Structures are given as C-alpha cells and as structure tokens.
Amino acid sequence: MKEFRTIGVLTSGGDAPGMNAAARAVVRTALARGVEVYGIYRGYSGLIDGDIRKLGPRDVSNIVNKGGTFLYSDRCLEFKTPEGMAKAVATCKRLGIDGIVAIGGDGTFRGATDLTNHGIPCIGIPATIDNDITSTDNTIGFDTAMNTVIELVDKLRDTCESHARCNVVEVMGRGAGDIALNTAIASGATAVVVPEFPYDDNSICKRIKKGREMGKRNFIVIVSEGVGSEYGPALAKKIEAESGVETKFARLAHIVRGGNPTLVDRVFASRLGVFAAEALLRGESNVVVCERAGELVTLDINFALTMDNMYKNTLKPGQLDKFNEEEIAAMKARIDDRIHNLMQLYTVENKINI
Ligand code: F6P
Known about the structure:
Elements: E1 6-11, H1 19-32, E2 36-40, H2 43-49, E3 52-55, H3 82-95, E4 99-104, H4 106-117, E5 122-126, H5 142-163, E6 166-171, H6 178-186, E7 191-193, H7 201-213, E8 219-224, H8 231-243, E9 247-251, H9 263-281, E10 287-292, E11 295-300, H10 301-311, H11 325-351
Parallel strand pairs: 1-2, 1-4, 4-5, 5-10, 6-8, 6-9, 7-8
Antiparallel strand pairs: 2-3, 10-11
Bound molecules: 6-O-phosphono-beta-D-fructofuranose (F6P).
C-alpha cells in the first residue's frame, strides 16, 4: 500500500459555506496521523502555478464558522489541457504531494479523476449549494444556502404584506430545483417553478388573482434559475398584467452562496473531511465521499459522474459501455429515488399553497 507522507487539500468551483470546515477537518485528521498537509490555493490553478503553503493545525483555527473558502476557489480551464495537467503533476512531484482531497462539485471531481489517472490519488468531497450531485443525498453548503434564502424571502414577504404586492424570487441551483422546492415550502410560497417539473404560468396567475379576491395581500413565487434567466422577470410582468397584483422581481444570486455555515453544514462538512482524509490515507482513491441515508460511503468517481450525466441527460455516446448491467440498474434506481424525493416535495408544496 502507498505510504502517504504529504497530502494536499483544495477547494474548486463555486464556493459553498462549510468548505472551510471540511478543509479544517482534512488538515487536522491528516496531521494527527503524522501526515503533512499542503493547502493548495485557488483550486487547480494553484496546483498549476505552485500557489501552495504548508498548513499546521493553527492555520485552520477560527474558520469552522466562516463562509467562503480560505483556500480560495477557481474554475480552471488550463487544468483541462495536457499542458496544465503536466504542470499540476510536476508540482505534486516537486513538493512530494502523495494524494489530494478535492472539495467542490462535479467539475472538481472531473479534475480529481483526471489527476488520479495521472498518478496522483484523489478523493472528492461534495460541496455545492445546489445539491445537484446525484450520488449523494446532501452537499456541503446546501443547508446554509436554503436558510439564507428563507431569511431573505421572509424579509420580502414583510414588505409585500405592507404594500399588498407579489414578489417573484429567483434562487440559484443551476439545473437543480432542490433549493427552490425546499425554500418554497419553508417560506410559504404561493407557487414554485423548477426545471424538473412542468410549469404553467397561467395557473400561477389565476391562483394569485383568486388569492387577491379572497383578501390575500402578499404573494411569493420562487423560481429556480434552471428555468432560464428570462423566465422570472417575464413571469413577474405577466402576474401583474393578469392578476392586477403589483409584482416585483428579485434575483438572490450569489448572496445565497456567502455567509456563515449553519450548524448542519459545519457538522456535515467536518464529518466528510475526517472521512475523506482517513479514506485517502488507507489507500482509497478516485472516489467521492457521499452521504446515503445518514451514512458516509465512498463511491467510484467515474460511476458518480456517469450517473450524474445520466440524470442530467448529458451522457456521451459509449459512456455507459464500461459499466455492467447491475451498475447501470443501480444508477437508474438512484435517479428514480431522486426524482421521487423531489416529486414528494413538489406535491407537498402544491397541497399547501392555496
Ligand atoms: O454551482 C453553484 C452555483 O452557485 C450555481 O448555483 C450557479 O449557477 C453557479 O454556481 C454560478 O457560478 P459563478 O460563480 O461562476 O457565477
């Protein structure tokens, strides 16, 4: 078995509250095992440029409660080129980095598997506010982002109530409606629009018109960014025109990605960090740490990414060829579960939004 003397930790892609707690857990777990840790700054860009510093236990003090990522982040295009990869591998060889914990989303995992294939064992930790990694029930930052959304929507509701208005609120999530569905329920929204399920503007307008006729003053409509950036502003205009209710549009955007992580994210991120570091040190690589029904498990990154592509309808020709029937069936079952869970949320939202 490979002996690890030094590992690296990086954060990459869109930042997520709780990334600091995860990195801190990786650093301290490895140090406690006598393994040195390098912080790789700006994700894979730092690996290419050598923007790397050795971290001691105190270097990760006072960050468990902080949003953002002290390691900074980047979406690095150069890393996808053979030249970029060669520079990254050379940096690892020069500094004696024997393995890397990569914290981020699906793009981060694609980088991690490429690096593993070039001889540097990597483990992925899922961190993205979107919760759009099919292989895991939960991602770091999701809980905090949802709590931020409901705090902001509660404020919008106050002013909507005073002025008898409607507010259409667009929330992040990329192609995933998880943030929108959960926050629509939790903020008492009148309607929710997500890319996973069909939506009908006319029925939303009718519902708001009827609500106003019955004396309802404020209306909140949550729209997931996955339905397109034009949709929310257009819906706000349509609601106003067809229901007579004055309607504002608000795009919460990146504000939802910042802020101190919730307790749930701090604990979850710490668990993942410890688990990932221990898995790497016992010789696992090319895996992503996932939460399944409360348990942490590791899953092959290629399997996880392919399942993700299957879910998002972005499979490339021949991509399934390296998987057997049982594995493909497991992917399909997982996808059905995910849709089923989202549908349950959607049904709950629809039953209580009158
Ligand atoms: O993946 C996280 C996320 O915040 C998405 O919700 C959003 O679509 C995207 O990243 C925004 O990316 P950027 O930081 O490049 O603007």
